[in-house]
From TrEMBL:
It holds the Pfam family Hydrolase. It catalyses: beta-D-glucose 1-phosphate = beta-D-glucose 6-phosphate. It is an enzyme of class 5 (isomerase). This is Beta-phosphoglucomutase. It comes from Emticicia oligotrophica (strain DSM 17448 / CIP 109782 / MTCC 6937 / GPTSA100-15). Its EC number is 5.4.2.6. Gene3D superfamilies: HAD superfamily/HAD-like (3.40.50.1000), Putative phosphatase, domain 2 (1.10.150.240).
């Protein structure tokens, strides 16, 4: 029986991927190369330093660890100026209504994000009090596709892995949920999120009891 929902943040609750892309792209451009939107797909759900390493590899740029830390901090500063303007209007369509349906049940809600900025973003869009547990990049040592973020989420909710359902938009995140031994609902495209148990285009017009009957 499903007793807890674990939500990814970026691409599931709010669309911050575009801001990550803008900030990483500016950094790449300053280094003399470009990154495409398609390449950006491979960065979704991947931690800040892992993303930076993938981008530098993509542009054939070799840097010292110290230089990398400086670039990552600069990218984050730029990213924060972009996300600091977010409000409740930036919550993805259908999410608020879906949360209201969950609140009428005993199902608990946790966040499972590798972002170190997750709490700030949830506060900004006014959702922070809706979560029973928040696991973010400050609480984990391994980014997705490692299952740590979701296993910690289950633990903080006091639940077993098989009592949790994960909502994820990234290939790495779906893999993390499956490796945690959980059912995973992909938010996005079926041909991309092939490992998910079920894929929804978004939360728009999603009925909670219908969804649970499909996933059991
Ligand atoms: C998110 C994004 C990733 C980002 C990562 C780290 O993960 O999808 O693109 O690199 O967080 O974010 P930050 O630099 O803010 O710590 P998730 O798990 O919320 O999808
Ligand atoms: Mg995501």
């Amino acid at each position: 029986m499903i007793k807890g929902f674990l939500f990814d943040l970026d691409g599931v609750i709010v669309e911050t991927a575009i801001f990550h892309y803008q900030a990483w792209r500016k950094m790449a451009n300053d280094l003399g190369f470009d990154i495409s939107e398609e390449f950006n797909e491979s960065l979704k759900g991947v931690s800040r330093m892992d993303s930076l390493n993938l981008i530098l590899q993509h542009g054939n740029v070799m840097l010292s660890e110290e230089e990398k830390l400086i670039l990552a901090a600069k990218k984050n500063e730029h990213y924060l100026t972009l996300v600091s303007q977010m409000t409740s209007d930036d919550i993805l369509p259908g999410v608020k209504d879906f949360f209201e349906q969950i609140k009428k049940t005993d199902i608990k809600i946790a966040l499972g994000s590798v972002s170190k900025n997750a709490k700030m973003i949830l506060e900004g869009v006014g959702l922070i009090n809706d979560f029973d547990a928040i696991i973010d990049g400050t609480k984990i040592s391994n980014g997705k596709p490692d299952p740590e973020v979701f296993l910690k989420g289950a633990e903080e909710l006091g639940l077993q892995a098989n009592e949790c359902l994960v909502f994820e938009d990234a290939v790495a995140g779906v893999e993390a949920g499956k490796r945690a031994g959980m059912k995973v609902i992909g938010i996005g495209h079926e041909n991309v999120l092939t490992q998910a148990d079920l894929v929804l285009k978004s939360f728009e017009n999603i009925n909670l009891s219908d969804l649970l009957s499909k996933i059991l």
